[in-house]
Amino acid sequence: MPRRPPEKTTFINPLPVKDLLVSGKELGLPMVDYIAANHRFSAGRMSWHSHDGHEILLLLSGTTGYEFRGGRKVQLRGSEIMVIPSGTTHRGQKDVRLPSTLCAIVFEPSHHPRHALFTKRECEWLASHFEQRTPQPVPMNVGTRHLAKTLHVLIRQHAAGKNTDGLLAALRVTVASIILETARHHEQSKPAAQVSMAAQLIDHMERHLSEPISMDALATHARTSRARLFANFKRETGMSPNDWLQRRRIKAATDLLRTTNRKLEDIAAACGFTSAPYFCHVFRKYTGTTPGEHRQKV
User: Fold this and answer.
1) Model pTM greater than 0.85?
2) In terms of residue numbers, what domain contains 263?
3) Contact criterion met (CB below 8 Å) for 126 and 109
4) What are the tens digits of pLDDT across the range 65-124?
């Protein structure tokens, strides 16, 4: 059976998710197809698709995964940004670590009408930094994270009908600034010389997920102080080590709830929780439902 060709996603026919969408044309940015924002407690697997433009993904909190044709998979964590070049076939994974807050911008620098915000030469410079790149999550710098937070707030205000000239102008400037800062970051970025502290700790927590893990033990493992551990980890991931660990354990628990009939006490112990009541408390905090309610839904 022949494969179906990938979908082409545009603002006119957006992805079937409950995102808040704003057309670039409405903002006076013809090169921008659309911008989007969401904050959700659940997400289904998207179908394979591609965009007629480059997609900038800015994850403010949570963790989500993306898969690309050929089998390559990446994880996007809080405070990370990733660019998916135009025409790259991909899909979002179902295993979103909840809750997540995401902004996205889809744009094509070659769409350069007269009186555009960027000159034709500047658009060529932008294109050179977005084309033919392997999608790879990288940490946002302080400036980009501030812009992403601002964008999320402005899109929600737009969706609420607060469409003043000032709001549209702020949206236009914020979107253009994110595109510019992302290109500049690509121009300046170099391959990392060593694995970051957060990556080392995440690998350690993954390998000891079912065991008791204290923050003091993590600090000892990283050969640093507890305060520096928290500061470095949050700067790289957008969350504390304990928050990341709880989210990961809830993800492991949801997999067991979906695929087995094991008792809650057994699942709690297998995922590193000290008791079933504590497991239920944390599960509701991160998913909005109890383990029993989640099992009935799947």
Assistant:
1) no
2) 197-297
3) yes
4) 888 877 788 888 888 999 998 888 888 875 555 567 889 999 988 766 655 678 888 888
CA–CA separation, 155 and 27 (whole Å): 12
Residues 135, 204, single domain; the answer is no
Alpha helices in the chain (DSSP H): 24-27, 120-130, 142-159, 165-188, 197-207, 215-222, 226-237, 241-259, 264-270, 276-287, 291-297
- Please state the separation of Cα 220 from the chain's center in Å: 29
pLDDT band at 8 (very low <50, low <70, confident <90, very high): very low
* 44 shares a domain with 184: yes
Q: How many structural domains does the chain have?
A: 2
How far, CA to CA in Å, does 132 sit from each of 11, 129, 144? Answer: 23, 8, 22
What is residue 2's predicted lDDT score, i.e. its pLDDT? 44
Residue 167: half-sphere exposure toward Cβ, Cα within 13 Å: 15
Higher pLDDT, 289 or 117: 289
Q: How far apart are CA 104 and CA 238, in angstroms?
A: 17
Rounded Cα gap, residues 33 and 120, in angstroms: 18
Strand partners, 20: 37
Cβ contact 285:99 at 8 Å: no
What's the rounded Cα separation, in Å, for the pair 173 and 167?
10
| Number of CB atoms found within 10 A of residue 286's CB | 20
Tell me whether residue 1 is in a domain.
Answer: no
| 3-state DSSP assignment of residue 243 | helix
Compute the distance between CA of residue 73 and CA of residue 87 in angstroms, rounded to an integer.
Answer: 17
Q: Please choose, from the candidates 53, 46, 52, the residue with its C-alpha nearest in 3D space to the C-alpha of residue 68.
A: 46
